[in-house]
Amino acid sequence: MAYVAIADRDHDEEHHDPQTFITKYVYSQDHKVIAIQYGVIAIFVGLISMGLSVMMRLQLGFPDQFSLITPENYYQFVTMHGMIMVVYLLTALFLGGFGNYLIPLMCGSRDMVFPFMNMLSVWVYLLSVIILLASFFVPGGATGAGWTLYPPHAISPGTPGTDWGIILMLVSLAVFIVAFTMGGLNYVTTVLQARCKGMTMMRLPLSVWGIFMATVLGLLAFPALLVAAVMMLLDKILLTSFFMPAIIAAGENVSYTGGTPILFQHLFWFFGHPEVYIVALPAFGMVSDVLATHARKNIFGYRMMVWAILAIGGLSFVVWAHHMYVSGMNPYFGFFFATTTLIIAVPTALKVYNWVLTLWQGNIHLRVPMLFAIAFIFTFIHGGLTGLFLGNVIVDLPLSDTYFVVAHFHMVMGVSPVLVVFASIYHWFPKMSGKMFNETLGRWHFWLTFLGTYSIYLPMHYLGFLGVPRRYFAMGNTDFMPASAQTLNASMTIAAIVVALAQFIFIYNMITSLRSGKKAGPNPWGATSLEWLTPDTPPKHGNWGDDLPVVHRWAYDYSVPGQEQDFTPQTVPASEVPVGRDHGVTHS
Amino acid sequence: MTVTLIFLAVIMVTVITWLLRQTLNVQPWVSDPVADAASGKSLPTHTKTVGLTTFLAVATSLFALFVSAYTLRMQMVDWRPLTEPNVLWLNTALLVLASVAYHWTRSQAVKGNLSGLKIGLVLSGTLSILFLAGQYSAWGDLNESGYYLTSNPANAFFYLLTAVHGIHLLGGLYVWARSTVSAWRGGDAAALRLSVELCTVYWHFLLFVWLVLFALLLST
């Protein structure tokens, strides 16, 4: 066990350890380096994906102005944008990036429990990204089947990328799942088995709870995608008929018989819906910690927050068919899935109330991370409420395949988690780098992103109500769409370009701050959880120097009455400073 | 999907009940000397045991989903059941013996009997490799009798399920090879014992999965 060996080593010896650049930054088994590798790769593909969305918006806003964007390209952009954002950016960044960085530090351990497997995880993830990006350059280009990859069209002639693109996409997903499983086993086992003394599960910050539960969901749900990918690969390469029915494609009979595309849809959404919560739960957890820290107040209803995470995790496995209302199903099934979908809104709403109540009468510091965190509450309420519309079969049917759905899921699982990503990067950047970011640039980034994304997605709901269909390359001349719909589309495109450009402010800010930012100090926000209490900033290999920390309280002792300092770190014993609700009673 | 749902319900209920028990009657916002003394390990077992258990949950989810896909696809009209080759009975016996051999190896490891351990490792490894060879010959038999991969989904599922199970066994054999090398080179005894103990669990798991798959293949 690598981390034991490091723990036992003499501190000076560790300090002078001859480490080459390669072992320190490339083949590193240190969870912090792995986290940053995950983060950099994920943000890199995220930027590519953002570029693709700008291309799509250019076509939608100004149709036929750009000869570069053909209908085939458009579908390839749509597909790759969706898949990259959901799987290769958000899942990888939240679990591989933040999970790796925060779990050992917040739990008070020296590293993940299986560091070698953790290192393999990031390299296999990189491999999956390379395979995915390679599909742009193969004959026929990337797949244009839509991010859901539904058969039969995903592998039938006529869809872009049916030669090689779809194969590379499916292989890349399978490789990604292997990488995720290796990482996920680490996250779960580390949270369960490697916490420091005194760190009970109920003293863990909510970030760890969110990441932990999301990993459990991922470990159980990703196999569904693997099964679907493997069977579709066999259908494509070896001509089996798991999913492929007997059809005529491009004027010719295919050699397939009798397969059922609905089976693929079940498998896909059996993964696909928990995936929404794989992205959302870490965001829920991390935003709770950012809100409590910058409002100088304990999180409202900590236990309720934990229970809500557990409830959402459990329920997320029994709502998947609400993505399939239009595929045709027994009305009783529709009723069942609509009911579970509405029930899952209860613990989710509970979390929203608790965030708002955490802010109430708090000592709110509107620093950049807090701005992003509060903005998340707005966008999440917005996206969550439109989810209630779509969860009802009767409302979903007319709105299905319109821009209302696009607006809903971008609001709830695009903009909202990304705002938390930014909140978290700004919040933990001083610890990761030891430097402060530029506050002014951060504010510019925030306002452009927040107002910009609202000007994209708010009007999009209206387009949906008009009945404007999603996925169309061009709308053509139709009676039901007024000319103003096109004007709206153009304005949304301009907003999208502004938001995309604003992200370069963020990247510029991160790079310049890393090189020449002010020194941050170990705990610039006055936070209580363990990652702010490391002896070095940024934390060194092994995290804690000679002795592991010992925990005496929960992570939310902010503004305890009667105390001079408005925060009490988790390592301070109750005999020195009373715990939050002890009301001055000291324990000897 | 019923199979998967039932399985997942069981896992989720177990996980969530266990987690809930950590949260009930706990008030983290007051001081708690009992919690201060808590070790930070949730389960009194080795970390690698927890890792393996988690992996078994993932693998079970994978196989349960394959079984669900099988039962769903089976309902389509073009499904023509195949006659399973008789060699599968022999293979099943081999895998049972491999599992028993690993169990015996484990008891030798616990006793600290190195020569017994070596015999046990060779025995369980050989039986497992014979099982894989037997599965491969079953594929040959099917092909000869005209049950090609593409001619019917029932055949395709047979090849697919046996392949996925075989790949999991191959992964186990990689760990088996490492512990066998370590046994001969006189590696760390405690690490070797743990490796054998975990492999035993994994072999029992794969035997259980195979029995379920075999029963499913025979009955349909």
What features would you describe in this structure?
The complex is a heterodimer of chains A (588) and B (220). With 588 residues, chain A is mainly alpha-helical. Chain A has a single domain (2-242, 258-293, 301-556), classed as Cytochrome C Oxidase, Chain A. Chain A contains 16 helices and 2 strands. Chain A has helices at 2-8, 11-15, 21-26, 31-61, 71-107, 115-134, 165-193, 206-237, 261-295, 302-315, 331-359, 368-391, 393-399, 403-433, 439-466, 483-516, and strands at residues 248-249, 252-253. In chain A, helix 4 (31-61) runs antiparallel to helix 5 (71-107) and helix 12 packs parallel to helix 15. Chain A starts with a helix and ends in a 72-residue tail after the last helix. Chain B is mostly helical and 220 residues long. Chain B has one domain: Cytochrome c oxidase, subunit III, four-helix bundle (Four Helix Bundle (Hemerythrin (Met), subunit A), Up-down Bundle), CATH 1.20.120.80. Chain B has 7 helices and no strands. In chain B, helix 4 packs antiparallel against helix 5. At the A-B interface, helix 7, helix 8, helix 9 and helix 10 of A face helix 1, helix 2, helix 3 and helix 6 of B.
Give the C-alpha Rg of chain A.
24 Å
Q: Residue share in helices of chain B?
A: over 70%
Architecture (CATH level 2) name of chain A: Up-down Bundle
CATH topology label of chain B = Four Helix Bundle (Hemerythrin (Met), subunit A)
Q: How many structural units, i.e. domains of chain B?
A: 1
At a glance:
The complex is a heterodimer of chains A (588) and B (220). Chain A is 63% helix and 1% strand.
